[in-house]
Amino acid sequence: MAGAAGQQQWSSRWTFLLAAVGSAVGLGNIWKFPFEAGQGGGGAFVLVYLAFVFAVGLPVLMAELSLGRRGKMSPIGTMEKIAKEEGRSKAWSIIGWSGVVGGFIVISFYAVVGGWVLAYIVKAFSGFAGFDAAISTDTFVAYISDPVWPVVSQFAFIAITIGIVMRGVKGGLEKAVTYLMPALFALLLGLVIYSAINGAFAETLTFLFSPDFSKLTLDTVLNALGLAFFSLSLALGSIMTYGAYLTKDINIPRAAIAISLADSAVALMAGLAIFPIVFKYGLDPAGGGGLVFTTLPIAFGQMTGGIIVGVLFFFLLAVAAVTSAISLLEPAVSYVSERLGADRKKVTLYLGLAAFLLGTLSAWSQGGNILSDVKILGADIMGVKDYLTNNIMMPLGGMFIALFVGWFVSRKNMMEELAMEESTFRIWYFLVRFVCPTAIGAVFVSILYNTIVG
Ligand code: PFF
């Protein structure tokens, strides 16, 4: 399957929806959401995150899908083309550039965490019997601190992703998402029920759903904003590229609502499965990126059939991570093959390997690994990449997408692409013109103000 993005198409509405949900649902929901919610103090963070998902993320998601479908190229090609058609500056293609480059940076650390998940599939085969908070934490830290294995597992994760992207979105992706995404959903639900019965569920409900706004700082608000974008796969060109494979008969607003609902449901389910164990076993809710790897194994070690459930959970999480990673690599692949007219397979291979090499630095920056002492502005290498993409590039990218469709593309053209009733279109238009830019801008301005003045 060579050439530009527009040459591929989804085989049905359902597979598009699954693929988009596959892109959205991933480590962001199951690994990142719980630990960021934990660090952000719980309820208030969750509420702000959900507000950002629906008031800012959802309108931008609709914008990206419609830009993608209209442009039918890589994100850079699409932005250039639409800006030109609308008589606007070519500089708008910077949105596409930032997406392609940002996606590349994200995959370089995403694959490291994806590799940890693969390693945990293997660990799960021998079970987690007797795991308590201390053993679980030690096992995780020992793994991420090893100089060899995290790189091996990261490589395995990237290799799987490359293999699927090489075959093109239809060949590889559609099959993976048709059965496995619903299976993940069902398993997570099962885990929530297990945790509700066996864990500290009442405490979890209070923690996650009764907001204590005194715990909210500007930084946590920015984290929530970044996470809303990250978990919906926004502003990195992924959704725009998937939009390019869309046919006209798909109702973008409806699809976008379904994607956002599924995405936030999975994040909340992950929280509801994980925190009852955190509280029951006295783990630290703010313990950081190891949360999912240190909590659930304790439960798997205790439940009947825990080996099967554990293997299945990490396997399905790996699938969810791969279906997201594919969408991270795809924009760069579609751009390079579009520009150079180069063979898609080769481009995928080279870009994937380059992301792997860049990713080794992230792998070695974790735990007590060989680069863990390297700090930039207080953060390790992976933290820096995470902050740069999640908290800067994605929200700013989203702001410019909103500004572009709200103020620089003709209303009539947007109306046509989105095919909504005038009354609902008006709500969307208000959100992209005023709410998204103001909300994102306000977060940034306040942070800048605090840094300079405070
Ligand atoms: N949405 C994915 C997740 O939540 O794991 C990650 C992701 C994929 C982010 C694609 C951004 C992106 F463009």
Description:
By secondary structure, this protein is mostly helical. It has one domain: Amino acid/polyamine transporter I. Helices cover 78% and strands 0% of the residues. The protein has 18 helices and no strands. α2 crosses α12. The longest helix is centred in the last third of the chain and has 35 residues, at 306-340. The radius of gyration is 21 Å and the shape is globular. The termini are far apart. Mean pLDDT is 92; it is low at 1-6. Bound molecules: 4-fluoro-L-phenylalanine. 4-fluoro-L-phenylalanine (PFF) is lined by residues 23-24, 26-29, 103, 106, 230-231, 233, 236, 238, 324, 327-328.
Give the N-to-C terminal Cα separation. Answer: 54 Å
Number of strands: 0
Helical residue percent? over 70%
**Strand fraction band?**
under 5%
Number of helices: 18
The secondary structure category is: mainly alpha
Query: Mind telling me the CATH superfamily name?
Result: Amino acid/polyamine transporter I
Please provide the ordered H/E string of secondary-structure elements: HHHHHHHHHHHHHHHHHH
Task: Indicate the radius of gyration in whole angstroms.
Answer: 21 Å
Under the CATH scheme, the architecture is Up-down Bundle
The tally of domains stands at 1
Ligands present? 4-fluoro-L-phenylalanine
User: Overall pLDDT, averaged?
Assistant: 92
**Unreliable sequence segments:** 1-6
CATH topology: Amino acid/polyamine transporter I
Strand count, sense and barrel status of the largest sheet are:
none
The CATH class designation is Mainly Alpha
Shape: globular
